[in-house]
């Protein structure tokens, strides 16, 4: 019997989309692709998501260092504000089917927990999100110094809410090898493309790491 469900955050529950204008990269007159080539740098991402670089100003300054760009303090502040606005908007405007499904799971007295690779800016507005009221606990990598797919972050979450892996489901879009990590500790896995449809090859690869597949979020209730 499923006693607990663990969810990924990004592209499983929310999508932090950019606007048509007034995005953080517009401050520097860059394209989205140019900005993300620096902002998502692998080394910096690790430092951010592990909480090694753990404040907004330092994160933005680290990105600018990679670009060799001399920004003014006003530009740095504006980049932070626009990034925060984007994350807050994503956490505020949650798809209704996702909310309804979580509400149904809660009514079944199933424990619900978040396991997310995230930096301090990503999770800043979590407690203000309509999602947060459905969750018994939220594990953000920057707060615990562990990243998916490390076994430690799953075991930490399981211990926090007091369930065994064999009584648990992990639901995610498959990023960061999270489904593999969850299976390795003994959790059943659910691959979802509800918010993010993968290319055929990638989708097939992720199917191999999943016990179940859903392209409609409410279908999670059928698995339960």
From TrEMBL:
<dbReference type="InterPro" id="IPR023214">
    <property type="entry name" value="HAD_sf"/>
</dbReference>
<dbReference type="InterPro" id="IPR023198">
    <property type="entry name" value="PGP-like_dom2"/>
</dbReference>
<dbReference type="InterPro" id="IPR036412">
    <property type="entry name" value="HAD-like_sf"/>
</dbReference>
<dbReference type="InterPro" id="IPR006439">
    <property type="entry name" value="HAD-SF_hydro_IA"/>
</dbReference>
<keyword id="KW-0479">Metal-binding</keyword>
<keyword id="KW-0460">Magnesium</keyword>
<dbReference type="GO" id="GO:0044281">
    <property type="term" value="P:small molecule metabolic process"/>
</dbReference>
<dbReference type="GO" id="GO:0016791">
    <property type="term" value="F:phosphatase activity"/>
</dbReference>
<keyword id="KW-0378">Hydrolase</keyword>
<protein>
    <submittedName>
        <fullName>HAD-superfamily hydrolase, subfamily IA, variant 3</fullName>
    </submittedName>
</protein>
<dbReference type="Pfam" id="PF00702">
    <property type="entry name" value="Hydrolase"/>
</dbReference>
<dbReference type="InterPro" id="IPR051400">
    <property type="entry name" value="HAD-like_hydrolase"/>
</dbReference>
<dbReference type="GO" id="GO:0046872">
    <property type="term" value="F:metal ion binding"/>
</dbReference>
């Amino acid at each position: 019997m499923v006693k607990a469900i663990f969810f990924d955050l990004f592209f499983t529950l929310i999508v932090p989309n950019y606007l048509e204008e007034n995005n953080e990269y517009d401050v520097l007159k860059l394209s989205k692709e140019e900005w993300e080539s620096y902002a998502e740098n692998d080394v910096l991402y690790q430092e951010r998501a592990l909480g090694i670089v753990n404040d907004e100003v330092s994160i933005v300054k680290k990105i600018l260092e990679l670009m060799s760009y001399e920004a003014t303090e006003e530009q740095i502040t504006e980049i932070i504000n626009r990034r925060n606005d984007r994350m807050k908007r994503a956490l505020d405007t949650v798809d209704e089917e996702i909310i309804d499904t979580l509400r149904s799971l809660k009514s079944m007295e199933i424990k619900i927990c978040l396991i997310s690779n995230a930096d301090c800016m990503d999770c800043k507005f979590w407690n203000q999100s309509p999602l947060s009221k459905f969750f018994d606990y939220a594990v953000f990598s920057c707060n615990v110094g562990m990243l998916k797919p490390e076994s430690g972050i799953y075991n930490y979450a399981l211990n926090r809410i007091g369930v065994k892996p064999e009584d648990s489901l992990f639901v995610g879009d498959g990023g960061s090898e999270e489904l593999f990590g969850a299976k390795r500790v003994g959790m059943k896995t659910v691959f979802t493309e509800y918010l993010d449809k993968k290319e055929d090859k990638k989708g097939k690869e992720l199917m191999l790491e999943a016990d179940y597949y859903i392209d409609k979020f409410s279908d999670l209730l059928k698995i339960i």
